[in-house]
Structure formats: structure tokens, C-alpha cells
Design goal:
about 80% helix
Amino acid sequence: MRRIGTTELMLLSTVVLWALNLTMSRYIIKHGFEPLAYSTVRYGAATAIFIALTLAMERSILFARRDWRIALAAAAAIVVNQCAFVYALDHATASTVGLVLGATPIFAAIIGLVVGLERVGRQFWIAALVSFAGVGLVAVGAGEVDADRLGMVLAVITAATWAAYSVAIAPLMRRYSPYRVSAGVLGVGWFGIAVIGSSQVASQDFDLAWKVWAILAVATLGPLVLTNVLWFRVIHRIGPSRAMLAANMQPFVAAIFAVFLLSETLTALQLAGGALVAAGILLARRRAAPAAPGAE
């Protein structure tokens, strides 16, 4: 019973921290940090932490030569993901972005199908249509709040690229620890983010309120570092399927946090869209199609 309680606590902590990430990031971006400067500083700090941890525990952060192509693909997905993420939060509310991110598992399944890791049937495509109809309702409802079309497009790109990253690192996770994967992939990804965001970093005024820096520290140590460790421990204990069922609630918890902490507004259309996204995910989870050979 003690072990079950600990696992549930780790899973709950992960979901809550991931959900808070959207609210904290939008606050930081709206209170002094340029979007790419924020991402550069945050990912730079997280990369340094993971490199230090990995070197301390494993004495190396390197991958085998055959795995670097996969690592580069995952890092490229992270670069696009973070650029889209910070600008989505700059152009749309955190609650709106959170609801769109609910469609991430559908994107992951589609990408898995394209690369041969998934086999899906008619029920999945119905689920996908339901979820994407939900995203459409969220987009229509976003016009009534502080969100524009660009923000919605970037939110969809954020969901799709996070799904691509999750699929890309799957082979690496079978051969390396989450610490080494994070150190290597985030390190390469941070370099790309830093190059793209260099002009914003150069012009960024770092004389910001202490609250912004405090929230930045929490956003780095919590949703970016601690959750990585907790998430993979949870997967090891209860398996990815059971863990993902709980993790799928993260976008909707994020929307609730944004409403209460940032005083954001959710329209009736957005709530209906969020419900459709959730329904699509549940429907997709019930599909019984077998996995492709070699998939886990």
C-alpha cells in the first residue's frame, strides 16, 4: 500500500507541475521576458542540471554513433516545439493552449502510424475526428477571449511537435537512462533555441521583478527537471498505458489553473471543445489494434 501511495503521489505531482507550466510560462512572458529569451534561459539552466546529474551518476552523456540521428531528430522537434510554445502563450491564453494540447496523444498516434510504430483501425480515426473537432471548437471560442489565429496555429504546432518528440525519444529510452536522454537531447535542442533566440537574449532587460525570477526557477526545476525524473519512475512502476491515462488530464487541469491564477476566461465553445478532445482521447485509448513489430 505504501508503494501504491508513493506512485500515485509522483503521478499527481507530475500532472500538476506540467499543468502549472502553462500558467507560469505565460505569466513570465507577459511580465518582462521576451519569448525566446525565456526559453533560452530556461532550457539552458535545465540542460546544465541534467548534464551535471548525468556526469555524476554515469560519467558520460554520450550516445552511441547509431543513436545520434535519432537524438538530432528529437532535438529538432524540441526546438520547433519551444519556439511554437512560447509564442502560442504570447498570442493566446494559457487555458486555450492547454485545451489544444489535449490533442497531443492523437498526434502521437498518427505520427506513430506514419513511422510504422502504430496500427490503427476505424475507431481511432473516429476518435481523431472527434478530437480535432474539439480543437476546432476551442479555436472558434478563442476569438471571444485574448487569443488570435496565430496563437491557435502555434498551439496546434506545439501539440504536434511534442508528440513528435515523444515518439522520437522512444528508441533512446530503451537504451539509456532518462538523465542521459535529457542531457543529450535537451543540450542539442538548447543550442538551436539559443541560436534562434540570440537577438532577443542580447536585447533582453534582465532587471525584472523578483517574482518573475522566482517563477522562472520553479518553472525550470519543476515542470522541466523534476517531472522528467518522476515521470519515468512512474512508467517503470505502473507502465506507460496507465500513466498516460492520468497524464491526459494535464491540459484540462492546466486550463483550470489558468482560469483561477491568471483570471482567464473560458467560453462555452471552448469548454465544449475541451470535452470533445477528452472524449476523442478516451475513445482512442479503447482501440484494440495490435502494435507493429518492434514497438513497445
